[in-house]
Write the structure tokens for this entry.
Amino acid sequence: MDASGCTVSPLDSSTWPAYEAAVREAGGMPAGCWCMAFHPEGTAMAGRGADAELNCARRRAKVEAGTTRAALVLDGERCVGWCQYGTPDELPRIKNRGAYEKAVEKLPDWRIGCCYVTKPSRRHGVSEIALRGAIDLIARAGGGVVEGYPEPADQVPAGFLFHGSLGTFERLGFTRTRQIGKHRWVVTRQVDPAPPAAGAP
């Protein structure tokens, strides 16, 4: 796969079909989650039955309402990966939450949720494209302090790096703040607001 030709688009009604196809191909990604585990309405590790379809329906409803966010990486019309992001109110259920909350001083403006690359597209730089896309979308939304919760790729199998690779975050300017799990780190970066589009008032 040549990821250099990939494009990034926000998850919305027009890109939902590509996202849905990728998640279904991955069997719910993983265990019927549909990227809902970090949302308050999500059923974590739902399996592939009714709860998985409930997560799918809830995610689609949130997409239609504009209350869930992700940067999708598209290879043509095919979705090959994404990076979920949102405010702490939108994504309160992070991994290692208890350890995180013991030492939190101030919540960030934005959180990076799950980072996922479809199995055939891994190790081609798709994850970095997705994270960069999320950062760009955050900049367009006004920027601010962005927090992620990645793990080192040399200590966690690629199929379980649901919060992304520590090295990918660091390459894009994130700094380690503290460790909250056996391998999990809190990393932060300040993202400046994007300049107004040409012709904007």
